[in-house]
Amino acid sequence: MSELSVLEGRLTDALRRISAGVEALDAAQAPAAAPADSGLEAQLAEERTANAQLEERVKALKVRQDNKIAELEARVTSYRKQLSDLDGELQTLRTSNADLNAMIEQLRGAVTSNVAEPELVNRALMAELDALRAQRSADAAEADAIIADLKSLVEGA
User: Which residue, 104, 128, 148, 155, has fewest beta-carbon neighbours within 10 Å?
Assistant: First the structure.
């Protein structure tokens, strides 16, 4: 039995030494863990700051993109109106040119039959004036479109 007591004492001493070693390791790791945790918290704070900055940049880019889209939509609307105006002027020009061609044919017929009708000459001159006015109006609409494009280019520069 005395051997049992001796072995029990030795085991108790060994367990105390192990317990002391574990406590020493825990104590050594506790201060080391605190700086590691504070380092991780600092990194986390930096990442949060970087994330907030990126979110602000994204918001600014979205606002800028929305403004650019609105500007482009306004330009498209303006171009559509100019195109519609030009189309109307060209239709008027085509109509007056068709009228002028019809009058010219009538005048040719009158000249070949040696009949000079003052009414035909008057109508031909009126058709020619209408054609010239329509051409001038179409030219003015085209010039307005070019000026609007130049203004947008100058403002963009």
Answer: 155
